[in-house]
Write a structure and sequence with these properties.
single chain, alpha+beta, Aspartate Aminotransferase, domain 1, 4 helices, globular, YjbR-like_sf, YjbR/MT2646/Rv2570-like
C-alpha cells in the first residue's frame, strides 16, 4: 500500500523517528510511528458517497481540537476515515510541503500520545513550539 522509496515518506520518517523512543511499524498496510501509542500514520483515506478516496501521500496526526478546526478548512487537509471521529486530521504531502509545519504537527501529536516521561525528554532536547 506504500512505496518504500517514496521521498515524502522518507522525509516524514526522518522527522518522526527523531522523537524520543519513536519507532515504526506497519499498521493496516501503512507506516505508523509510535511510542506506546501511535502519533502519526503515513497515508489515509476519506469515505465519499460510500467510496474510499485514498490520500496515499499524507500524514495523519492527532492535534488539539482548536488546531484541528483551523486545519480542516484547508484544501490540503481532510478528516480521515475511521480515525477522524477520534480527532485525527490528515495533511496531504507534496513537493511544496512546509516540513517545519509538519514537524510541529508531529510534535503536537507526539505530546498527546507519548506520555509525560517521553515529553520531558523531548522538552530537554527542543523548546516547545
Amino acid at each position: 500500500m506504500f512505496d518504500e522509496a517514496d521521498p515524502l515518506l522518507n522525509r516524514l520518517r526522518a522527522l518522526a523517528l527523531a522523537f524520543p523512543g519513536a519507532a515504526e511499524k506497519i499498521s493496516h498496510g501503512h507506516p505508523a510511528f509510535f511510542t506506546t501509542k501511535v502519533f502519526a500514520y503515513y497515508g489515509g483515506s476519506v469515505k465519499v458517497d460510500g467510496v474510499y478516496r485514498q490520500h496515499e501521500q499524507s500524514v495523519l496526526v492527532l492535534v488539539d481540537p482548536d488546531e484541528r478546526a483551523a486545519l480542516v478548512g484547508e484544501d490540503r487537509c481532510y478528516v480521515p476515515a475511521y480515525l477522524g471521529a477520534y480527532g485525527w486530521i490528515g495533511v496531504d504531502l507534496t513537493g511544496d510541503t512546509d516540513w517545519d509545519e509538519i514537524d510541529e504537527l508531529l510534535d503536537a501529536s507526539y505530546r498527546r500520545t507519548a506520555g509525560p516521561r517521553r515529553v520531558a525528554v523531548l522538552d530537554s532536547r527542543r523548546p516547545q513550539p
